[in-house]
Structures are given as structure tokens and as C-alpha cells.
Amino acid sequence: MKKRIFSLFAATLFVLTAMAESQVKYVFYFIGDGMGVNQINVTETYLAALKGRIGFEPILMSEFPVVGLVNTYSATNGVTDSAAGGTALATGKKTKNGAIGVLEDLKTPCTSIAYWAQQSGKAVGVATTVAITHATPAAFYGHQPDRNMYYEMGKDLCKSGYDFFAGSDFHRPYTKEGEPSLHEQAKAAGYTIVKGYKEYEKKGRKADKVILVQSDKQNEKWASEQLPYALDQTKDDLTLEQIVRAGINFLSNKGKDGFFFAIEGGMIDWACHRNEIGTCVNEVLDMDKAVKVAYEFYQQHPDETIIVISADHETGGMAMGVGPYEIHTDLLRFQHKSIDELKWFLNDMYQKNPKKFDWPVVEKVLKEQMGLGGGIALNDKQQERIRNRWNAIEKAIAENGKVRDRINDLCGTCKNIINEVAMISWASGGHSNGYVPIYAIGPGTEVFQGRIDNIEIAPAMAKIAGYKAE
């Protein structure tokens, strides 16, 4: 046994020595927030079901040659939150739940791999599908004791000097004290703020530093917190795929010796917090599209590029199965809106024309947009539950009550029924301590094979790329 352990140590030392001499110039670090192994499994099971067979149809990231499992507990909790999880992935240090880029004492800052890359002369980008000051992206530049200090983290972003940021926007960019908005501070720090991919192509390419955000219309709708879910995207919406294309273009043209690019698929987590299986699957597929963009770049520079994909934690304790030995993920194909979008859509219908807001109209929406009573056959009890929710809406309308709340209740019942018919179960609406996957490709990434801890990832990536970890 001792001889085998020594051999493994020697092999690891050999790989690390080789990495120190690596010519890796381009580093992609994808984080699927809330993306446990079962989130991948259900997505691949769904794709196989669409082809009429039991089994799985692999997505791109899971076909990478290096595959491992990652532990995610924080310094203080068996179940991490995104702040501590993001900090571990970004800095290689465990911290207290809720803390960003500081140690457990909430005072001592810890630097991230993005900073190490910057100090090594690389161009640096940080991108997400949520607000750029949310926990996971903030872990790459921020140092705050509380993840809810959005304004302070926005100031950290402006001070970072990183070359490229992208996401929905800043969250809560103003303070009551009357300090300059984060948009003003970003512009003062030399950032050009561009809204949407077309605007990036027009005036972002030649900027010194860029913050790419979505349209004012979408930010007004979603309070600057998120891009639309993949299920809800229109041709005019900013997507993660576009963000990665823009980031590669911008970082490649900075004239520096390579780049580091951190990219979060942030709303896998949001969908799983809400126990929305159809939305979750489409968010995983959306991130895989973005991975494909990075992989296309890798194919052009295979000896100089690494792509590492992992997650900060699993969300929801999701499992395929509710007791009977079957699942029906193929039924998810009939869902065409996220539950959030369904709530917004029905409430908007009611507000615009309350007199025509009746059961036939709502029933048609549920059939066409969610498949309920259409592609998805409902039993008597499920039909009764939906009709009871509608009756509560009618009562609220008649009594001038809380119609919005009753519409939201109806949408929640629709979500629960979709889980039931697909035979998907959830342990909670929070995080779990389940393993998350790690996938990797490129020189030196063999070190991620097997079971590792989340604090091992950033230092190993830095070693491969020749960054000095601090």
C-alpha cells in the first residue's frame, strides 16, 4: 500500500512539474451554480428520451476526457452557500457561509485566480447569467464579509481593473447616502458599458475595458438580477453563448500573453431553488452551448488552452424517481416557459384585460405553454387541483383580493404537477452536500481526475497556467 501511495505521489509530482513548464496561455473556468451530478444526469436522460430511448445522450462537457467528483462543504457548514462555495472555487480557501473573498475571520482578504492571472500579465474576464455583483462572480474580485453588500462589491469590481465583465447588470447600483452610482464609478474607472451583443459589436470591441449587460427593458423586468431563463429567451436577449463569444473576442484582442476567463451559469441554481425541472434542464443545456464556444477556441489552440468546469454546490437535492421504477423526462419538452415567466405572463394578461381573464383563456395558456392538458395528460386529481387554484383566482377577482398571489399559487401547482408526471423528486428548496462534477480538457488537467476538494481546483489551475498563487 505504501508503495502504491508513493507511486501516486510521484506521478502527481511529475504532472505538476510538467505543468510548471506548460505553455498554457488560455484558461476557461466554467461554474454551473447549483449543478450537481444529477443535474447533468437528468439533462442527458432527457436528451435520450427525446430520441425515444432509455439511457443518456451526453452533452459536450461530460465528454471531456477528465472527470472527477468535488466535495463542497464550507469552513463553517456541511452545506455551503454560493458565497463560501464561490470563494473556495476562486481562491482555494474555505470560508464562512455568506462571506466573499475573505477568510473565516471575515477580515483577512484572500486573492483569487483571476487576480493571480492579472498579476501574471494575462487579460481577465468574469461573466455570469445573473448580476455581476452576485456571489459567485464577486468571489473572483470582491472582499466583503456579507454577500448582500452589493454596492460595496460593485466598488471592488471597479477597483479590480479586470478587462471584461458581463452579466445582467449591477444589482442595487445606488446607495441611500448619495454616493455615485456603480455605473458612474465604472465609467470613471475606464469601463465602457455596452447593452447587448449588437452594441458590443458596435462600440465594445475597441474599448479599453468593457462591462457587457443586457437591455434596460429586461433589467427593468427582472430588477437587474438575471438574464432571461433559456426557456424564455427571445432573439433580442443577451445570452451566455453571446457573452462567451464577446469575451473571447475582447480578451484575445487585448494584446496580452493569453487570458483567464471565469464564466458562471448562474440560473441552474435559481431553477433548482424553485424545484423547476424543465427550467433546470434548459439552463444546463444553455451553459453547455457556452462551453461549446470555448471548446471551438480550444480546438484552434489545443496545446495552449485548458477548460475546467465545476460547480459551487448542488441545489435542491434533486433525484430522478419518486418510487416506481420509471421516469418520464420526455414530457419536459412540452414546457415552453419558466414558472417565473408564466407568473409574469398571466399576471400581465390579467392587468391588461381583467374582464377577459377567464378559465378558457388560462386553460389555453397552460396547454400551449406548459403542456398541461395538452401534450401532458392529467389525471382527475391533477385536473381538480388546477381547477381549485382557478376557483381561488376567481374568488380573489370577485372580492378585489390578492389576485397576483392566487395566480402565483396556480403556477406553483403547475410546477408541482410537471415534477410529478416526469417523476422527479426534490429534497428541499435549498442546497445540499451532494457531490458536484468536475470536467476538464487540456494540458495538465489530469490532476482533476478522481475525488477532490473544491479548494484544490484554483491552485491546480494556476499551476498549470504558470500563475503565482498568493
Descriptive account of the structure:
- With 470 residues, the protein is α/β, with parallel strands linked by helices.
- The protein contains 17 helices and 14 strands.
- Residues 1-20 have low confidence and may be disordered.
Which secondary structure elements does this structure contain, and how are they paired or packed?
Elements: H1 2-20, E1 26-32, H2 37-50, E2 66-71, H3 82-91, H4 113-119, E3 123-128, H5 135-138, H6 150-160, E4 164-166, H7 182-188, E5 191-195, H8 197-204, E6 209-213, H9 216-222, H10 240-252, E7 259-265, H11 267-273, H12 277-300, E8 305-310, E9 314-315, E10 319-320, H13 339-352, H14 359-370, H15 380-398, H16 403-422, E11 424-425, E12 431-432, E13 436-441, E14 450-453, H17 457-465
Parallel strand pairs: 1-7, 1-8, 2-14, 3-4, 3-7, 4-6, 5-6
Antiparallel strand pairs: 2-13, 8-13, 9-12, 10-11
Helix pairs in contact: 1-17, 2-12, 8-10, 10-12, 11-12, 13-16, 15-16
What is the level-2 CATH architecture name of the largest domain? 3-Layer(aba) Sandwich
Strand tally is: 14
Could you name the CATH homologous superfamily of the largest domain? Alkaline Phosphatase, subunit A
Question: Which class of secondary structure composition applies to the elements?
Answer: alpha/beta
Percent helix, as a range, is 40-55%
Radius of gyration: 23 Å
Q: Spans of 5+ residues with little confidence (pLDDT < 50)?
A: 1-20
- Give the terminus-to-terminus CA distance: 34 Å
CATH topology of the largest domain: Alkaline Phosphatase, subunit A
Percent of residues in β-strands: 5-15%
Number of helices: 17
Strand count, sense and barrel status of the largest sheet are: 10 strands, mixed
Report the CATH C-level class of the largest domain. Answer: Alpha Beta
What is the 3D form? globular
- The neighbouring-strand order within the major sheet is 5-6-4-3-7-1-8-13-2-14
Mean pLDDT: 94
Domains, number:
2
